């Protein structure tokens, strides 16, 4: 099977090169260029996500966004709420504050149509990222940055076929989240074995562990636990051990701990969507749009940041970036 893989060195090199150009580095005019950079307009940009407190994925997204904001003299404001009504309220608050742009996630797109429309009517551009790849245009976003969840799920299912898996347990930590549902459904469609779906309360890891342990104890045919986030993969390892199960664990998304678990063989592989890049691009998009009228994707196509496999073939390259909290 042809494996999806994005070379992290190329991404980092590209971002570094962009930063050097924008900083105007030269041996003779560095201080002058730095002075000019300070004179660039200050835009106020709000990022509003559905992130759950304590989920390391969103820490990485935020680091990327803050890196872009610092580079471009942006007044960056971050807020999050895992309940959709609360997320909509946060977007409303940003509109009332008169921000210059709003980057948001569309985990439940229908619930956010109203506030995106209000932002557009107020002349505030909106960028979607991470979730809502099939809905961002209809909702009214200017562009989209993220992974193709159907492609990711399909690739995951085919990888399970190559691994010889027979029965996968797909763990969804938030019911109704369009991206998570798409991952499991696409995996099921491409996987030759049996797929069982289980919902857990992603904001309560004790409950997650006990639910998975009970599921593994009741069905010994499960040979792969598929989680949709790095923290849940780490919890699944404990569940399998407590259940006396031989089921292997693989996941979507990473963090430093997860990367270390791939390195020591505890977790088989992960599918990466580059959350740092999602955060970076969604904020940098506003600087480009507001200062020069640029927008990526021709306002019609999403800008993909994944998927890519992380496994024992490339884990050493990824690990050095994970240690910085950016992968």
What features would you describe in this structure?
About 50% of the residues lie in helices and about 20% in strands. The chain is elongated. The two termini are about 25 Å apart. The chain is α/β, with parallel strands linked by helices. Helix 10 links the parallel strand 8 and strand 9. The chain folds into 2 domains: about 140 residues, Response regulator (Rossmann fold, 3-Layer(aba) Sandwich), CATH 3.40.50; about 120 residues, Rossmann fold (3-Layer(aba) Sandwich). Helix 4 runs parallel beside helix 5.
CATH top-level class of the largest domain: Alpha Beta
Strand content: 15-25%
Per the principal axes of the C-alpha atoms, what is the gross shape?
elongated
State the order of secondary-structure elements, H for helix, E for strand.
Answer: HHEHEHEHEHEHEHEHEHEHEHEEH
Helical/strand content category:
alpha/beta
- Tally of helical runs: 13
What count of domains describes the coordinates?
A: 2
Strand order of the largest sheet: 2-1-3-4-5-11
How is the main sheet built?
6 strands, parallel
Instruction: Please state the second-level CATH architecture of the largest domain.
Output: 3-Layer(aba) Sandwich
Question: Helix coverage percent of residues?
Answer: 40-55%
- Spans where pLDDT lies below 50 across 5 or more residues: 1-29, 33-38
- CATH homologous group name of the largest domain: Response regulator
CATH topology of the largest domain: Rossmann fold
């Amino acid at each position: 099977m042809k494996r999806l893989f994005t070379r992290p060195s190329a991404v980092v090199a590209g971002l570094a090169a962009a930063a050097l150009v924008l900083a105007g580095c030269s041996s003779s005019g560095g201080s002058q260029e730095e002075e000019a950079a300070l004179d660039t307009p200050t835009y106020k940009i709000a990022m509003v996500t559905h992130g759950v407190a304590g989920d390391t994925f969103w820490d990485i997204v935020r680091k990327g966004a803050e890196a872009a904001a610092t580079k471009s003299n942006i007044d960056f404001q971050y807020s999050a709420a895992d309940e959709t009504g609360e997320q909509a309220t946060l977007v409303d608050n940003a509109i009332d504050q008169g921000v210059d742009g709003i980057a948001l996630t569309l985990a439940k797109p229908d619930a956010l149509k109203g506030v995106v429309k209000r932002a557009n009517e107020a002349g505030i551009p909106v960028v979607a990222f991470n979730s809502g790849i099939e809905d961002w245009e209809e909702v009214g976003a200017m562009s989209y940055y993220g992974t193709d969840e159907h492609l990711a799920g399909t690739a995951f299912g085919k990888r399970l076929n190559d691994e010889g898996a027979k029965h996968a347990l797909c763990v969804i930590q938030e019911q109704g989240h369009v991206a998570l549902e798409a991952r499991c459904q696409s995996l099921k469609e491409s996987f030759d074995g049996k797929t069982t779906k289980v919902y857990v309360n992603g904001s309560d890891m004790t409950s997650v562990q006990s639910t998975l342990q009970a599921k593994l104890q009741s069905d010994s045919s499960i040979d792969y636990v598929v989680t949709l986030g790095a923290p849940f993969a780490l919890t699944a390892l404990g569940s399998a051990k407590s259940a006396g199960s031989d089921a292997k664990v693989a996941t979507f998304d990473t963090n430093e701990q997860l990367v270390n678990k791939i390195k020591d063989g505890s977790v088989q592989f992960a599918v990466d969507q580059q959350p740092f890049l999602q955060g970076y691009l969604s904020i940098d998009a506003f600087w480009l749009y507001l200062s020069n009228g640029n927008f990526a994707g021709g306002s019609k196509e999403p800008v993909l940041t994944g998927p890519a496999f992380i496994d024992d073939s490339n884990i050493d390259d990824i690990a050095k970036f994970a240690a910085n909290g950016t992968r």
